[in-house]
Structures are given as C-alpha cells and as structure tokens.
Amino acid sequence: MHTTTPAGLPASPALTRRSLFSLAGAGAALAAAPLAARSFGTGFTHNVASGEPSATSVLLWTRCVGEAETALTWEVSESEDFTRPVASGTIAASPARDWCAKGVATGLVPDRWYFYRFVAPNGAVSPTGRTRTLPEGPTARFRLAVFSCSNYGFGWFNAYAHAAEANDADLAVHLGDYIYEYGAGTYPTAAQAHPDRVLDPSTEIVALTDYRLRYATYRADPDCQRLHQVLPMIAVWDDHESANDSWKDGAQNHQSETEGDWAIRKAAAKQAYREWMPVSDDVYAAYQVGDLATLLRLDTRLEGREQQFSLEKVLEGKTDPQAAAVALDAFRDGAWANPDRQLLGAAQEQWLADALKASTASGTHWQVLVQQVLIGNLKSPQSLASQLGDGLPDFVRQRLTAAAMASKAGLPLNMDAWDGYPAARERVFTAALAADANLVVLAGDTHNGWGFDLAQDGTAVGVELGVCSVSSPGFESYLSFMQPDTLARALVEENPQLQWADTAQRGYMVVELTPARAVTEYRFSAGVKQRSAKLAGTKRITSEKGSGKLVV
Hints:
Elements: H1 23-31, E1 43-51, E2 58-65, E3 70-77, E4 85-93, E5 100-105, E6 113-119, E7 129-132, E8 142-147, H2 158-166, E9 171-174, H3 208-219, H4 222-230, E10 233-235, E11 246-247, E12 250-251, H5 256-259, H6 262-276, E13 285-289, E14 293-297, H7 311-315, H8 321-333, H9 346-361, E15 366-370, H10 394-408, H11 422-434, E16 439-443, E17 449-456, E18 459-466, H12 484-494, E19 498-502, E20 507-513, E21 517-525, E22 535-544
Parallel strand pairs: 8-9, 9-10, 14-15, 15-16, 16-18
Antiparallel strand pairs: 1-2, 2-5, 3-4, 3-6, 6-7, 8-20, 11-12, 13-14, 17-18, 17-19, 20-21, 21-22
Helix pairs in contact: 1-4, 2-4, 3-6, 9-11
C-alpha cells in the first residue's frame, strides 16, 4: 500500500536543504557566468539523474569526464550516508558516449525511496541523488509532476525549481521539447532572448557534437540538475530534440541541401538524447504503478509518423475565397480523412492496443498515455487570423492564418497534432473503448494549458490534460491584441471537447491518481525572466474514474 506522511506528502527519506537541496547554492554559482564563457571541466560535470523506474529497478545516470574511459562504481542506499547499501555495480564513462554513463540498479524493494551516487577510481564522489521504485499491488495514491517545452533562451526553468522545492511528487514526467535545436537569434529572437541564457553552440544543432553540446548547456542549468537529482524521470522526445515538426523521414526545420541526410541527423539526435537523458533505448514502453495505473510512453514523432499536412499548401494560389473553400473541403474529405494514415506506426499502434487490454484485464484503475501532442480536437476561433502580432516565426504565422480559414471548413488548428491524423486517433480511441480503459492522456508541445473531454461518435473515451510550457512562450506572445481570457473563452466556445484553456502562463502540472479520481493541479510560474520558484497561481481540475469527464 502506498503510504503518506501526516502532512499528505509521499513518504520519503529525510531531505533537507543542508543535504540534497544544498544544490541551490551551487546552482547560483553556476548561473553567474554565461555558458559560452565557461568550461565544464573534468570529473563529475553535470550532477546525477535517474529514470525508467519499475517496482524493483531504476536507471542511474551521471557524466564523468576523464583522460580516458573510466570505470565508475554506482551505489544505492536506503540512507543518505550510505551506511545501508542495497545495490552496487560498475559502468564505464567513455568519450564514445560523451562521458555519459548509465547503469540499472535491480533487486530493489517496491514503493521505496533510495539514495544513490557514483564513485570514480581516484576516490572522487558524485553528488548524491534521490530516486524511488514504483509501487506493487494495491496503491492508494501516486503523483506525477509533468513538464514540457523548456526553451533555455527564453528564461529560467522555474517550473523545475518549484517542483523540486515542493517535494510532493513521486515521479517527474517530461513530454518533450526538453531542448530546442535553433541557433541564437532564431527562437527566441535576439530581442526576446534572456541576456544570461547564452546558447552553446550558437548555431543550429545538426551534427552529433552539436546536439551533445546543447544538452551540456541545458543540463548545466541549476534547476534542471536539481529536478533530476531528487526525482526519477520518465521522458519522451518531441520534435525539437531533433528538428521542428519532425516526422520519420524529415522535418520542417531540416534542409537536406545544406544540412545533409535527415537519417544521419535523426540518428545523431537520438544518440545524444539517449546519452544525456536517464532513459532506456526502448522507443515505447509501459510502467506499472501498482494496481493504480499503467503509464504508456509513446513515440508520436520519429517512429511511425507520416509527413504532416500543410494547410498553407492546400491554400497555395487560392486567392479567391470560393476557391479556397473548395480546396479545403476537398482536402477535408480526401487526404485528411485517409483511413490508412499513420502517426504511431502499425507496430506501435498494435502494441498500444494490446497494452491497454492487458492493463484493464489486470484490474488496473487508470491507463495513462505519456505522449507528446494534443489528441483532443481543437479548431481555431475564426477571428484568429486578424489577431496576430509581431515576433512570430513566419512558418507559425502562415500556419495560424491558414488554420483560421480552415476552421470555417471544419478543419483543425494544428496538423502537427493528432488532429492531423484523425484516422490514427480513431483507431486509438477504438482500442481504448474495446479495452474498457479509463483513459488519461498527457500532452505537451503547444506551450499552453488544455483540458479536454475525449469522445468518439458521442461515446466518452477519456480525458486529456495538456501542460503549459516550462519557458517557451504561448499564445500571449503573438496574439497581443487579444486578452488571454478572451482567447481562452473563444477557444472553449469553438470546440465542444475543450473544457478549459490557459493561453498565457508558464509552469507545470501535478497529476494525482487515486482509485476513485484523477486530480490535476496546474502550477503557474510567476515568470521566467528572474530565477524564482514563486508561483503566480494554481488551477485544479478533477476527473472521476469511469466518467470520461473533467470537472473544471
């Protein structure tokens, strides 16, 4: 049984500012100099991290730079002073993996917090991390701290800082866009960029060395380190870990004539991600949280996704409104509705259907999709095209203008989301209904907050919770002539499935699962231009088990 302290927080080892939270002081020193002027040095350079938890195992990560490949010893203990060790092993920190090292501790006890560290042959010791195993059997409660879209150049990762300081989650979940591939001055623009958040390399990342250095830049952030140090993480990549609007055979932000073969760039992006993140090499995976939830981590980006449709191309050359309407109607009834169109790919789609069925057959209360892009239906308010402000990348401006026109034809806002793959979404919903799943879908990508009631042909399928970004700007940054509450209200009125939206705040969400309900608390950062864990406010949304509805 999952236990709680009298204060209602998850039972955990003593965690004090003198011990693990002393990282905050070290972080201040780290933040004092621009990264471009700083060397990461030798030895343990980027703290520690953990991930891929099960009831009896967890993956451990560190980075240790040396003159040659070095054998590191990892240790897991029930006590912070390591007087009660329970597991140990040896792994190699090698230049072939950019000095990143990962090991898997097995034979652990379910539903327990542990401390871990790494020791080098010369006696150097890494910082101490905290991790935990998943529960087994009857489980009363489990909390996920959910993040997405952490763009270094726009400001501080204050959502990470608050989650670590709050110390009330069992597991961190990152839904992608953990890094961004753009060069300095692109996104953010020079005018938008935080002066103390200097990208390295300064150019767009394309080669393996570029991706590695960009991860090193992001992972040097003190609050990013702090989050990883105190919570295990399940992470998925989205597009910016490779290139904007990526799919299996290309990306919007990849030009093969100047940037080479997409397959080579994609392989480099995957390699650096797997080196620098506390993740396995599995493209998709399931995590069992006792009898409470099955977390199903998906790849909606690089595994099976066919190329996104472009509304701009559908409308290309259609200057006459009637011609544009005819083109959009033909697209809606033709290519967009293609029953064979793939987002997950056939193999992953079948795996998901089988996993949903197995989860409900085992008596598990909730089936949670840990994935990247919105699955709820979202059309643009038809007045949106007239509201665009300055500072928006051209491709986004074109997309939103086209989406506003498309809304009149019953077409969705974002062809890069599940909305661009309606047949694939229908197959997932059909599988969820066939399994009698209590479906909760987690999504990132959009930088804004969303709450959807999901339905298919009038039958409730589940709910979706879209998390706002850690630091990437949302609608408020380029719809400057529309008040955020006005825009949110217009979106809710336009879209029957949409129950709630926030289009102006950064932050993260905590999803608390119990056998009876799923309760989500959106936690909005007070800003990202100053480093602070202060919140501007919260929003609570509840879904009763079996209802397929949100109470907002």
